[in-house]
Amino acid sequence: MLKLYYTPLSVYSRPVWIMLIEKGLEFQLVSMKLDGDQIQPDFLAISPFNHVPVLVDNNFTAIESLAILDYLEAQYPIPVLLPNHPNALAVVRMVQMVTMNELLPSMILLIRESKDVQKQESANTQIAKVLDFFESLLCDSLFFAGEQLTLAEVVAGSVIPLLPNNGISLLAYPKLKAWSERLIERDSWQNTQPSPEEFEIFKRRFRVLPRVRKRLYR
Questions:
Q1: What is the mean pLDDT of residues 76-105?
Q2: What are the GST C-terminal domain coordinates in residue numbering (predicted)?
Q3: 152: nearest Cα among 208, 108, 96, 202
Q4: Which superfamily does 2-75 belong to?
Q5: Which end of the chain is less packed: N or C, by CB atoms within 10 Å?
Q6: Cβ neighbours of 62 (radius 10 Å)
């Protein structure tokens, strides 16, 4: 059976968790407390950089969220979550990379620098730029790559629905707001969605434990 080492509030773990549910796969969850579990010898043996998520599939171990998603898509191709049309494939990859490289760091900055007005403004500007880009990519489609859920949703949908919990409204982005609401209704999102209370606890912990900030999401 597939085994996923994860932490529930990790936006790196959650896409893998969502994908396992969307694929209808049987799997075992191994919850990690990132205040020490990640540096235990048994875990370091499968995750040398002490990050989550880690996926173990029989004798194969995969680390790094995006690599794990690609592995699952190739190994368990039904239902298809990665299009093969060049345009659609490029859109999926753009959404994945912009989410991880542009949106997520800005969201983390908002949480971490809650009292620094200049950094808050910078983060909000970057987030708005990403949301504008995503709004334009959606056009009139249900999903980023057309009418079917893809890895773009699996990744971006792990972050964007959390923005309102951090004071970022989606009202100025009606297509993105409708897209987010469609995702939240899916069982895979319902089963993995942190509650507002859990997210507030996470934010408080993130701010007061600077030495573990780099590990709280990983």
A1: 97
A2: 85-216
A3: 96
A4: Glutaredoxin (3.40.30.10)
A5: N
A6: 19
Amino acid at 38: Q
Beta bridge partners of 61: 56
- Residue 34 phi, psi (nearest 5): -85, 35
User: Residue 129: is it exposed, middle or buried by C-beta count within 10 angstroms (0-12/13-18/19+)?
Assistant: middle
pLDDT tens for residues 140-153? 899 999 999 999 99
Within 13 Å of residue 175, how many CA atoms lie on the same side as its CB?
14
pTM: 0.90
More confident position, 15 or 116: 15
Please state, in angstroms and as integers, the Cα–Cα distance from residue 45 to each residue in 32, 48, 61, 68, following that order: 15, 6, 10, 17
Cα dihedral value 181, 69, 26, 77, nearest 10: 100
Q: Return all residues near 28 (Cβ < 8 A) that are at least 6 apart.
A: 1, 2, 3, 4
What is the topology classification, in CATH, of domain 86-190? Glutathione S-transferase Yfyf (Class Pi); Chain A, domain 2 (1.20.1050)
